Amino acid sequence: MPDLAALALDALIFIGLAWVAWRALGRSIPIAVIPIIIGLLLAATGVLPASWGVPSKLGDQIGFLGVLLLAFTAGLETRQSAHLPTAADATPLPRTQALRFVASAGMALLLPFALGTLAAHYYFTGLPGWDAPKGGAWMGALAIGLCIAVSALPVLIGIVRELGPLHRPLTQLALRIAVIDDAVLWTGLALLLLVAEGGSLLAGASTTHVFAVGVIIVLAAAGSLASRLRTPPTWLVWLSLPVFLVAGAWASSQLGLHALLGAYFGGAMVPPSWTKRLLVERLGQIALIGLAPLFFGHSGLKIDGSVLGWASLQASLVLLVLAVVAKLVAVMLCPPASTLSRREALAVGALLQCKGLMEIVAATILRDHGLLSEHAFAALVTLAVLSTLLTGPFFRTLVKRHATADAHGRQPA
After folding, report:
1. Fewest C-beta in 10 Å: which of 82, 146, 163, 277?
2. CA 180 to chain centroid
3. For the chain, what is the HEC assignment?
């Protein structure tokens, strides 16, 4: 099939069909997971003839560009709290609660990461086909633990917007924690890849590597300096964004890491005062709906259909239970605010267990670097889909029961 025809069919399946399904379901399912589900179904059934040319080369390139843009906007949103849904009277956390909040965010990351790593090392990596191709047992276990600890900021923002303003105090707490989680996720991912590739990076150090490190330093210095200067015209800010995106992605790829890492950190280096004047949410929506579905659909489609079965689903369900319980226990042990009731803390945990597309991106990077096997990747992608689908209904159930309990408590005796 000609390249353009294959691209058109590719877009029809993973962009057009996904959008139609999303609208037909009343937007009850986050659009980010629908292309993945389509890809998984096509991979499991094998009904898509290879002669059709799907996934197409052009579709791969467009999808990768879309996910680069998603990673870049995630970096922008990490630095710019104005793009998070907030109440009109939202104020920063009091200083007396700052330490408690940071401790809660740390617990929400460390407990799932530790439990996921231990469970992976002592159980999952012993399953047939779960051994990481590179890095050894512990590196593979750390990769799985990192995916278990993820809270998906971009998808969570969309879910919170769909939930509306009624429960904004709770959703805002979850988003603030997710911002920290997102930054730590990408940093941890970069460190894990550096450790895994450390020997080859040091042995093969060249002028290009030194120049790539210099590019990152210059970007960070430029962002820091620009934040202290007068904000330039909006058109100049827009022109600077591709520089941060391309330079960051190029530098990380030259260092043997993934271009998505550089795209994320490139966005995080853009001064917050600049991004206040940009339509970051609109930029992310264009990438999410019009470009990245090709990447996520292809990620599902490229999974070996033979690894998708009852055993993979069982592993995904066990991972789901582990991930959800770990997040809930973490916020129960260390709530982000002292005023939260037990059920409100659980509601925050229900939002934080959302894996969304960030886990799929992280798992894709780890698989590409040999730290996840195809079996582990398939189970983690399925976990991301299940946890994202669970988030909204789980949160609504908890806050509904809390509201009902309050109503009963206010009734006269």
Report:
1. 82
2. 12
3. CCHHHHHHHHHHHHHHHHHHHHHHCCCCCCCCCHHHHHHHHHHHHCCCCHHHCCCCHHHHHHHHHHHHHHHHHHHHHHHCHHHCCCCCCCCCCCHHHHHHHHHHHHHHHHHHHHHHHHHHHHCHHHCCCCCCCCCHHHHHHHHHHHHHHCCCHHHHHHHHHHHCCCCHHHHHHHHHHHHHHHHHHHHHHHHHHHHHHHHHHHHCCCHHHHHHHHHHHHHHHHHHHHHHCCCCCHHHHHHHHHHHHHHHHHHHHHCCCCHHHHHHHHHHHCCHHHHCCCCHHHHHHHHHHHHHHHHHHHHHHCCCHHHCCHHHHHHHHHHHHHHHHHHHHHHHHCCCCCCCCHHHHHHHHHHHCCCHHHHHHHHHHHHHCCCCCHHHHHHHHHHHHHHHHHHHHHHHHHHHHHHHHHHHHHCCC
For residue 184, the Cα-to-chain-centroid distance in whole angstroms is 12
Contact 371, 310 (CB under 8 A): no
Tell me the pLDDT of the chain (413 aa) as tens digits: 677 888 899 899 999 998 998 888 877 777 777 888 888 888 878 788 778 878 888 988 898 888 888 878 877 876 655 444 444 444 454 556 678 888 888 898 999 999 999 999 999 888 888 888 887 888 999 999 999 988 776 667 666 666 666 667 787 778 778 777 777 887 888 888 888 776 555 555 568 778 888 888 888 888 888 878 777 888 888 888 899 999 988 988 887 667 877 888 888 888 877 777 777 777 877 888 888 888 888 877 877 767 777 778 888 899 999 999 999 999 999 888 888 888 888 988 888 888 877 788 888 889 888 899 888 988 888 888 888 888 888 888 888 765 555 544 544 43
Burial class (CB in 10 A: 0-12, 13-18, 19+), 82: exposed
Instruction: Give the tokens for residue 313.
Output: 């689903």
Residue-range domains of the chain with CATH: 3-87+101-407 (1.20.1530.20)
